[in-house]
Amino acid sequence: MPTTGPIDFYFDFSSPYGYLAATRINAIGAKYERRVKWRPILLGPAFKASGNSPLISQPLKGTYAERDFRRTARFMGVPFQQPDPFPIGTQNAARAFYWIDDRDPLQAHRFAMTCFATYFAQGIDISGAEKVAELAAHAGLDRDEILAAISDPVVKDRLKREVDASLLKGVFGSPYIIVDGEPFWGADRLDQVQAWLETGGF
Amino acid sequence: MPTTGPIDFYFDFSSPYGYLAATRINAIGAKYERRVKWRPILLGPAFKASGNSPLISQPLKGTYAERDFRRTARFMGVPFQQPDPFPIGTQNAARAFYWIDDRDPLQAHRFAMTCFATYFAQGIDISGAEKVAELAAHAGLDRDEILAAISDPVVKDRLKREVDASLLKGVFGSPYIIVDGEPFWGADRLDQVQAWLETGGF
């Protein structure tokens, strides 16, 4: 079993459990000297492929989910507030991410955490291109370059290809983490991800 | 907040994660000196109310779920094999359970664990009334009394009322655990159940 490839971390910027996992995944990777490849996707196409819908819109489950988001965040010691509107379209954030990531993965990670924290810790809508560019500027990037990237057909197509590739990998939710071919779905599988890295598979 | 009531443990005998939680829940209750009230339900009506369907029949998610059942069992150190047929109707096991539980909760617990282990550790179908009566006999009960109970309209109605009551409590999946009014869904929330009992809520 190869143990030198990156950990693939798939998430949607509008996913609370994606946010919770995002606060931990790089520390887990670092512990086992494994690079983490962040891969924002769009849950819309994933839900379409798997016949799912946003948790929050499901009877009974939706009410539970809102409570579980908050409680699991407290359990993990992560700042969280339920944003409104929720969920949101995250194609602008995801496009900006890939554009930045091609140039500087560390800066892309900083930008991603800023997006997550702004939406889920401060409750501020991050769907708009202007907002995404502002957050990228906070992460040290050029605002106008980001705005141009977001509306660039090449970058749009890049995100589309990433989403299509994730579907081929079987990614149907967020977070979805692949370690050496083994898939883990959910922030509540981080303990299994760690055990898998520790043991090389159990 | 009252801390003297029982822990309500809702599950379907055909639920792998219900089985996994079943192997742990009484030890957790004992640790915090809390009684655990086992409440078998039928996922069919719960899925209808919440717009869900069995995990296994969902595109992408079904394939993942089968892998996750096995892996999570290994992670927890619990014997498991994917039974076939799966899922199965569990009204006979649930009816027998309530009939036994009204007479002897300890024996009902033993019977429930026998059902779970037969289906998920040995992979043997437990849907039929004859099989359920045989398993009850193993747990020290009278085979013919169990067969009579399973087809008794009073016992059938008892299960129906338990299922209806669970829906009113918002139970939409298995396992579903309620501690002092706080609901926890999934075997992967047992750590939060423990923390809740430890702290009286967090």
Mean pLDDT of chain A: 95
Low-confidence region ranges of chain A: none
Task: Count the beta strands of chain A.
Answer: 4
Radius of gyration of chain A: 16 Å
* Spatial ordering of strands, largest sheet of chain A: 2-1-3-4
Give the helix tally of chain A. 9
Order of helices and strands of chain A: EHEHHHHHHHEEH
Strand content of chain A: 5-15%
Q: Can you tell me the overall shape of chain A?
A: globular
Q: What's the story with the biggest beta sheet of chain A? A: 4 strands, mixed
Fold and architecture overview:
Two copies of one chain form a homodimer. With 202 residues, chain A is of the alpha+beta class. Helix content of chain A is 56%, strand content 9%. Chain A is built from nine helices and four strands. Chain A has helices spanning 16-31, 43-50, 61-76, 91-103, 105-120, 129-138, 143-150, 153-168, 190-199, and strands at residues 7-11, 36-40, 176-179, 182-185. In chain A, strands 2-1-3-4 form a four-stranded mixed β-sheet, with helices on both faces. The longest helix of chain A is centred in the N-terminal third of the chain and has 16 residues, at 16-31. Chain A is globular and about 45 Å long. The two termini of chain A are 12 Å apart.
